[in-house]
């Protein structure tokens, strides 16, 4: 009886211990399953986040590609526009500058009719078109040029007329007539001219002989520049 009872107790104890261990294992399995489910949810959440990020990057890249395409188109249009402006009609931007200003730095006594005024002191001569030894500007290229001249008269009563000449042909004139001693006057004029390469331009007296040209102070100047070539 006692032996049988002992065996029963031992068996019961083993069953209880096994059941408790099994219960612990089941609890661990349930916890692992729960952890796996959480991991799965986290992975799904991360995958969704990565998908959104990829979607954003795809959209951003598409925007960049479109912006680059628009920029390339804009640059192309600007380049085309500049070419159109550059070659519009027969005009073009200057490939080389031509501009000068020269002045007379002394008085000229007893100048005759049709005498070329030699503006001997050069202030600017880009392109070297003006010759301060002859007073003549020579066009280096075809184009539209602007010329301006000024001359002074004073001290005593006399008349002084000048004009701009292109290869012997009078273009525009200026006049400085003093009516009495101490009366000062200055003649000026400005003109735009079509010139061809090799054309010569100068300032000369005309109509009145034996005149005095005042260069001191520097009243008497001659300027010109290429506006555009064609």
- CATH fold-level name of the largest domain: Jelly Rolls
E-strand count = 12
Distance between the termini: 135 Å
* Rg, nearest Å: 50 Å
The CATH top-level class label of the largest domain:
Mainly Beta
Biggest sheet descriptor:
5 strands, antiparallel
Describe this structure in words.
The structure is a single chain. The chain is an alpha+beta fold. Helix content is 37%, strand content 34%. It folds into 2 domains: 1-88; 99-229, Sandwich (Jelly Rolls). The protein contains 1 helix and 12 strands. The termini are far apart. The model has no long low-confidence stretch (mean pLDDT 80).
What brief labels describe this structure?
230 residues, 2 domains, five-stranded antiparallel beta sheet, single chain, 37% helix, alpha+beta, Jelly Rolls
């Amino acid at each position: 009886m006692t032996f049988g009872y002992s065996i029963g107790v031992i068996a019961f104890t083993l069953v209880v211990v096994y059941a408790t261990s099994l219960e612990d294992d089941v609890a661990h399995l349930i916890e692992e399953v729960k952890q796996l489910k959480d991991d799965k949810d986290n992975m799904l959440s991360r995958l969704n986040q990565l998908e959104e990020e990829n979607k954003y990057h795809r959209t951003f890249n598409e925007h960049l590609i479109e912006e680059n395409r628009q920029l390339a188109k804009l640059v192309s249009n600007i380049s085309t526009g500049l070419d159109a402006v550059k070659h519009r009609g027969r005009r073009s931007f200057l490939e080389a500058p031509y501009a000068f200003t020269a002045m007379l730095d002394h008085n000229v006594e007893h100048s005759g009719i049709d005498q070329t005024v030699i503006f001997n002191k050069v202030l600017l001569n880009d392109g070297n078109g003006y010759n301060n030894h002859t007073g003549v500007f020579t066009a280096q290229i075809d184009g539209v040029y602007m010329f301006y001249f000024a001359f002074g008269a004073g001290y005593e009563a006399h008349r002084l007329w000048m004009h701009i000449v292109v290869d012997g042909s009078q273009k525009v004139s200026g006049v400085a007539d003093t009516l009495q001693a101490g009366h000062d006057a200055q003649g000026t004029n400005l003109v735009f001219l079509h010139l061809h390469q090799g054309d010569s331009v100068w300032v000369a007296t005309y109509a009145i002989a034996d005149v005095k040209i005042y260069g001191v102070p520097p009243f008497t100047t001659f300027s010109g520049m290429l506006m555009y070539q064609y």
